[in-house]
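Tokens in:
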């Protein structure tokens, strides 16, 4: 199988060589697919615990895989019951009250963690008005910091709790 624009690298499973993975690696710095960089853009790192809320059959599987590849683990669901480093909250117009959804997303979030609110882009089914996010965030005790396109149909808005003085 050809590796367009890059080189093949091989990673073996240790301590026993049970399986082998082959990855196409870019030969130039910064030349990577969008899905590969999504975890980086969301500030995710290997070993982080990421909780996924609001998953449904319309969510972007490539984005989900990119996140799990970046954290090198599966995302946890709402029944996890322990602290998490970040939350991915998939939200659509008909999902109910956004403030309630954001407050629920704070339940397991560690202090200083981020909620990434994933909403359909404008013009897609289920899209929500940006003003709704701007209005709901402070009511839930959050500040909106960044919005980024993370896939063809979804955008992500980073929400954080304001830092409290020590």
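Residues out:
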């Amino acid at each position: 199988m050809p590796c367009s624009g890059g080189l093949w690298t091989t990673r073996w499973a240790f301590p026993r060589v049970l399986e082998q993975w082959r990855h196409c690696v870019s030969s130039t710095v910064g030349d990577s697919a969008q899905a590969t960089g999504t975890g980086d853009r969301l500030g995710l790192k290997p070993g982080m615990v990421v909780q996924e809320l609001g998953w449904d059959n319309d969510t972007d599987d490539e984005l989900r895989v990119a996140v799990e590849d970046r954290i090198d683990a599966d995302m946890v669901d709402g029944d996890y019951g322990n602290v998490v480093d970040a939350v991915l909250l998939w939200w659509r117009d008909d999902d109910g009250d956004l403030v309630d959804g954001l407050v629920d997303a704070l339940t397991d979030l560690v202090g200083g963690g981020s909620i990434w609110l994933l909403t359909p882009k404008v013009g897609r089914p289920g899209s929500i008005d940006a003003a709704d996010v701007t209005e709901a965030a402070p009511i839930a005790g959050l500040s909106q910091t960044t919005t980024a396109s993370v896939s063809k149909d979804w955008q992500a808005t980073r929400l954080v709790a304001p830092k409290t003085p020590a």
